Amino acid sequence: MSQKIFNDIFKGKTVLVTGHTGFIGSWLTLWLKYLGANIIGYSLNPPTDPSLFDILNLDNEITNVTSDIRDKEKLFETVKKYEPEFVFHLAAQSLVRDSYENPLNTFEINVLGTANMLEVLRFSTSVKVALIMTSDKCYDNKISNRPHIEDDPMGGIDPYSASKGAAELITSSYKDSFFNINDHKISISTIRAGNILGGGDWAKDRIIPDSINAIARNHNIKIRNPDSIRPWQYVLEPISGMLWLARKMYSNQKEFNQSWNFGPEIRQKFLTVKEIADYILTKSNSSLKIDFADNSNQPFESKKLMIDSSKAYSNLDWKNIYTIDDALSEIIAWYKTYQNKQEDMKEFSISQIDNYVSKAKQVNMNWTK
């Protein structure tokens, strides 16, 4: 069913995905391949072992360029050689705690890497649409009385958040200096997505893989910040938003050439880290418990972070489809299927894409305009 939604725009098109070996990049690559796109992946080797990219055997189905986003010459050569029409820039250092341990590395990848991508796009003759993925953490998170909207100031206390705010500012500068003048033919938007959960995530210090791994080893789940609140959402939600936005940008270069929040409706209940862990224990029928780690010496992480996606809901006809219960059920099903080795994980993952699209149509998501 998903073939009928986006393939009029992606089928047969060449699409560059940076960071395609990561968790989100692998899901995006799988969906785009399913839609008939010709994928050029540009990334380092998968960042985890196991990795979703390897499990889905995507290496054999795309053109895989193994290189660093900081290598501008290689990136320029790749874009020139393969002439993509669409670019999804996801390559990043994506972990807050790692940004404290390796701040310079974080700034180089997230800031210089984004600047490299924009500089290459500036001289591209093939690219029509580029989406730059930053983070919901790009905001100067000093507002406590409401969720962040797209016009809020950029900032961030930790190096990761600061690097994402800087990536937004650099993108804005490039757009104003080079892409919004002289009838430039590339349309560029930035994506600020809420905390993303899904099957196939094995990154360290993340609530879902930490919980799944603990249960698999018959260990209690250890969490650091039980009361922290995040705009949790299923991995296919922001990916559907990016695909839908890219389609809109392709047909209307100027109107959708903006920054967009992609996250859950602000009216829904936002779960704490502890509530997420409790849910996973309950659904896993486990008698294990939660252990609370001493975080008195841990680096700062914002306790509450929320974003307002009303602009995307009203201007793109896009919205989150799954409740948090739906999302966690799909995620647990993915990991159980993987652990039991009963099904081909690529086919199972595609079935989850089909389930998501079917649910989207049921709730009247307007994907036919």
How many DSSP H or I helices?
Answer: 13
SSE string = HEHEHEHEHHEHEEHEEHEHEHHH
Q: Tell me the total number of β-strands.
A: 11
CATH class: Alpha Beta
Tell me what portion of residues adopts beta-strand conformation. 5-15%
Give the uncertain stretches in residue-range form. Answer: none
CATH homologous superfamily title:
NAD(P)-binding Rossmann-like Domain
Sequence of strands across the biggest β-sheet: 3-2-1-4-5-6-10
Mean pLDDT: 89
Structural class: alpha/beta
Pfam families: GDP_Man_Dehyd
Domain NAD(P)-binding: 16-330
Keywords: Lyase
Protein name: CDP-glucose 4,6-dehydratase
Describe the structure.
This protein has helices spanning 3-10, 23-34, 52-55, 72-82, 96-101, 103-122, 159-179, 207-216, 236-251, 273-283, 310-315, 324-340, 345-362; strands at 14-18, 38-43, 63-66, 86-89, 129-133, 187-193, 196-197, 221-223, 233-234, 259-262, 290-292. It is an alpha/beta fold and 369 residues long. The protein has one domain: Rossmann fold (3-Layer(aba) Sandwich). It has a seven-stranded parallel β-sheet, with helices on both faces. The protein has a two-stranded parallel sheet with strand order 7-9. Helix 2 crosses helix 13 (345-362) and helix 8 (207-216) packs parallel to helix 10 (273-283). The longest helix is centred in the middle third of the chain and has 21 residues, at 159-179. Residues 16-330 form the NAD(P)-binding domain.
